[in-house]
Design a protein that fits this description.
With 393 residues, this protein is α/β, with parallel strands linked by helices. The chain contains 15 helices and 13 strands.
C-alpha cells in the first residue's frame, strides 16, 4: 500500500528547500507526525495557520500521486500556480479545461509525472475510474475545506457525501481532511462521510486574539452604507465586505466607487476571467476593497485584511467564523463587524444561533468559541466586553 518514504526530518528538508520556511509551527507538527506515520488525520486549524503545507509537504514524500479535492476553481488555480513557481509538478482538472487539456493532465498523472493533482469533487468519480484503470497508486488524499462536507453535502453539492466511497475505490490511501472551523458534531460527520473513524483529530484553539468582534444595528440601508463607507474610506490595509446577493455586491461597489473608494465586486455570476482579474488586483493592492458573496475567500492568502464587514448576518455562526477569519492573517489587529436591522432576522436561512449572536449582550467571542466546543477564560476584544471596534464608530 502506498505511503510515505520518510518522516518528519525529511519533511523539514522539503519545507526549507521547496517552501523557504525554516521550521514547522507546533500545530503543523501535530498534524504531520501521525500523517507521515500512515494515519488518517482531521485537522481543524484556524485561518492563516498554514493548512496547505500540511498536505503539500507530505505530497512530495508520498509513494504515488497526491490527490487534492478542492471546492473552488479559483482556489485550486492559485495553489497550483504557486506550486509550479516553486518547481513542483502540480496540475488541476476542472470544468474550464477542454478535452485535450484534461487528457494531457491525466496522462501526466497516470504516467507518474505529477506530484499533486487538484480536482473538484464533481470530477472525482471520473478521475477515480481513470486512476484505478491505469493502476496509478495514490499516496495521499487531501480533502481541503472539509467543512463543505457538512455545509454543502446535502443538496448544493451532494457529491461531497460520496467522498468516502471514492476513497475506498482508491485503496484507502492515507487521508487528511482540513478545515478552518468545525463544531464537534461537524467533525464527527466529516469522519463518518470519509469512512475514517479512527483518524487522528487535531484541533487547535479557535481564538484569534488579534480580531475584535462587533455587531451594530442600523435603521435602514442608508445608515448601513454610511457605516461601511466610514469604515473603508481612507482606511489602511484591505477591506472585505460580504453581501448576501450578487445584486447587492454590485450596488455597494458602485456606491463606493462614487465616493472614490477603490472597490470591486466578486461573485459567481462574473466570468472566470473577471474573477481572476479582480483577485489579482486585490492581492496586488490595486483594489483595496472587495464586495463579495460567500463565493469569495477560501484559500485566498491576503494577510493584511484589516476589516471584514458583513452587510447582514450570514446564515450560520460557522459560516461567519470562516468569513470573519479572513481578517488579520498577519497577526496584526483587525476588525470583524456585522451590520443588521430587524428585517434581516426574518431571513429563512438564518439559524437560531446566528440570531442569538447578533442580539446577545453576552461576550461575543465567548459565544463563538463555545459554539466550537472551546471555553474562553478572558475576552481579548469584542464590543460587549468594552473593546471598541473602530469600524463601528
Amino acid at each position: 500500500m502506498p505511503g510515505f518514504r520518510s518522516g518528519l526530518d525529511a519533511a523539514r528538508v522539503v519545507l526549507a528547500e521547496h517552501f523557504g520556511h525554516p521550521r514547522f509551527r507546533v500545530h503543523q507538527l501535530k498534524v504531520l507526525g501521525p500523517l507521515l506515520a500512515g494515519r488518517n488525520v482531521l485537522a481543524v486549524l484556524p485561518t492563516g495557520a498554514g493548512k496547505s503545507l500540511c498536505y503539500q509537504v507530505p505530497a512530495l514524500l508520498a509513494d504515488g500521486l497526491s490527490l487534492v479535492v478542492s471546492p473552488l476553481i479559483s482556489l485550486m488555480q492559485d495553489q497550483v500556480g504557486a506550486l509550479r513557481r516553486r518547481g513542483i509538478a502540480a496540475a488541476y482538472v476542472n470544468s474550464q479545461l477542454d478535452a485535450d487539456q484534461r487528457r494531457a493532465i491525466l496522462d501526466a498523472a497516470t504516467g507518474g509525472r505529477l506530484a499533486l493533482l487538484y480536482c473538484a469533487p464533481e470530477r472525482l468519480a471520473s478521475l477515480t475510474r481513470r486512476l484505478v484503470a491505469a493502476r496509478t497508486p495514490v499516496g495521499l488524499l487531501a480533502v481541503d475545506e472539509a467543512h463543505c462536507i457538512t455545509e454543502w453535502g446535502n443538496e448544493f453539492r451532494p457529491v461531497y457525501r460520496r467522498l468516502g466511497v471514492f476513497r475506498s475505490f482508491l485503496g484507502r490511501p492515507p487521508t487528511i481532511a482540513l478545515t478552518g472551523s468545525a463544531t464537534p458534531s461537524a467533525r464527527a460527520e466529516i469522519l463518518h462521510v470519509l469512512r475514517m473513524p479512527d483518524a487522528e483529530v487535531v484541533v487547535t484553539s479557535f481564538d484569534r486574539p488579534n480580531l475584535v468582534f462587533a455587531v451594530r444595528r442600523v435603521r435602514d440601508d442608508r445608515e448601513r452604507f454610511a457605516v461601511v463607507r466610514a469604515a473603508v474610506q481612507g482606511a489602511t490595509g484591505a477591506s472585505l465586505i460580504y453581501a448576501p446577493t450578487r445584486r447587492l455586491t454590485e450596488l455597494v461597489t458602485r456606491a463606493l466607487l462614487r465616493v472614490s473608494v477603490r472597490a470591486a465586486p466578486y461573485h459567481a455570476g462574473l466570468s472566470a476571467s473577471t474573477r481572476r482579474r479582480v483577485l489579482r488586483a486585490f492581492l496586488g493592492d490595486g483594489v483595496r476593497v472587495i464586495v463579495a458573496t460567500s463565493a469569495f475567500g477560501m484559500g485566498i492568502d491576503k494577510p493584511d485584511v484589516r476589516r471584514v464587514l458583513h452587510w447582514g448576518p450570514p446564515p450560520t455562526l460557522e459560516a461567519y467564523y470562516q468569513e470573519a477569519g479572513r481578517a488579520g492573517r498577519d497577526g496584526a489587529p483587525a476588525e470583524c463587524l456585522i451590520l443588521w436591522r430587524q428585517q434581516d432576522l426574518a431571513w429563512g436561512d438564518l439559524t437560531p444561533e446566528m440570531r442569538r449572536y447578533v442580539e446577545t449582550r453576552r461576550c461575543r467571542r465567548r459565544m463563538l468559541l463555545e459554539y466550537f466546543g472551546e471555553r474562553l477564560e478572558e475576552c481579548s476584544g469584542c464590543d460587549v466586553c468594552g473593546a471598541v471596534n473602530r469600524a463601528s464608530e
